[in-house]
């Protein structure tokens, strides 16, 4: 599943530690449960996308906040195992990294997640390393580091480097990044201010001049709008073990394929990779 040419991607956003459990169901109040399986991995939309991008034969860097708390060694070990580089915006930060606890329901593959996002770990634009975009072929932004992301997106646009957003959900500040975006790949949970229908979401994103827009719906068809063309793309129907991280994996695969294919083909290929990942527990075993 690799290109002949290896590309370089910069993935900007959230870095977490994910504790993932496989169980019969999510626990109810005052209930204790024993998990059937568990795994620990680095997480966050940008992080999982970067790992996927590298797995498909490229080189990826994650730009985010990690810090130096002892728990971050688990994050670094996992990411380095998949040959992804971390550029830490706050290397001396002593507080624990964001931790996500995730329970995957064994019968359906659905997941319940509780986590801390990057709201308390917003980095300064001044912490962006010089020449961060040299030799970069594509940038993905997940919306969890808004100030840094805006600066990166603006510079990428000026240097004709394509910018992809992972619109998992609307986050205040996205409106400042959208003018620099080439590919808006969003979930059905992405609701900009005043947008209640999918048509309104497409119109909102179009108003920023974004030429390529897609909205995913899990196992349902992907809706897309590209230059002079609208339509849907079917998603492979497979037996689901775990949907955790499928959207992140989709975005990482999309970044890989869009560098060599047209928009609709890249969406289709990314959907195939993401669907394949849902046949395995956790966010990493599909690559083994």
Beta-strand content bin: 25-35%
With helices defined by DSSP (H or I, 4 residues minimum), what is the helix count?
Answer: 7
Read across the widest sheet, the strand sequence of neighbours is 5-4-1-8-9-10-11-12-13
Instruction: Assign the CATH superfamily.
Output: Ribokinase
Report the sheet with the most strands, covering strand number, pairing sense and barrel closure. 9 strands, mixed
Mean pLDDT comes to 94
What integer value in Å does the Rg equal? 18 Å
Q: Any idea of the CATH topology?
A: UDP-N-acetylmuramoyl-L-alanine:D-glutamate ligase
Straight-line N-to-C gap = 13 Å
Please bin the fraction of helical residues.
25-40%
Write down the CATH class: Alpha Beta
SSE pattern, N- to C-terminal: EEEHEHEEEEHEHEHEEEHH
Q: Write the CATH architecture name.
A: 3-Layer(aba) Sandwich
Name the poorly predicted regions: none
Shape: globular
Tally of domains: 1
Secondary-structure-derived class: alpha/beta
Quick recap:
This protein has 288 residues and is of the alpha/beta class. It has one domain: UDP-N-acetylmuramoyl-L-alanine:D-glutamate ligase (3-Layer(aba) Sandwich). 26% of the residues lie in helices and 25% in strands.
């Amino acid at each position: 599943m690799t290109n002949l040419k290896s590309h370089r991607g910069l993935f900007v956003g959230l870095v977490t530690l994910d504790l993932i459990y496989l169980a019969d169901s999510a626990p109810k109040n005052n209930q204790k449960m024993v998990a059937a399986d568990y795994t620990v991995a680095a997480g966050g939309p940008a992080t999982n996308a970067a790992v996927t991008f590298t797995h498909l034969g490229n080189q990826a860097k994650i730009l985010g906040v990690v810090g130096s708390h002892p728990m971050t060694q688990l994050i670094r070990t996992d990411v380095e195992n998949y040959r992804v580089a971390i550029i830490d915006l706050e290397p001396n930060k002593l507080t624990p990294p964001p931790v996500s606890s995730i329970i995957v329901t064994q019968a359906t593959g659905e997941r319940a997640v509780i986590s801390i996002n990057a709201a308390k770990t917003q980095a300064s634009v001044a912490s962006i390393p010089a020449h961060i975009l040299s030799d970069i072929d594509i940038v993905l932004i997940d919306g969890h580091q808004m100030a840094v992301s805006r600066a990166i997106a603006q510079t990428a646009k000026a240097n004709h480097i394509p910018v992809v957003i992972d619109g998992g959900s609307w986050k205040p500040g996205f409106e400042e990044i959208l003018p620099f975006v080439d590919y808006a790949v969003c979930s059905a949970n992405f609701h900009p201010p005043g947008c209640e229908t999918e048509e309104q979401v497409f119109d909102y994103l179009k108003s920023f001049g974004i030429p390529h827009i897609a909205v995913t719906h899990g196992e349902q068809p992907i809706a897309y709008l590209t230059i002079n063309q609208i339509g849907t793309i079917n998603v492979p129907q497979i037996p689901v073990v775990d949907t955790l991280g499928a959207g992140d994996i989709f975005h990482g695969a999309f970044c890989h394929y869009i560098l060599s294919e047209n928009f609709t083909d890249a969406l289709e290929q990314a959907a195939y990779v993401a669907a394949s990942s849902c046949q395995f527990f956790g966010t990493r075993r599909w690559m083994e």
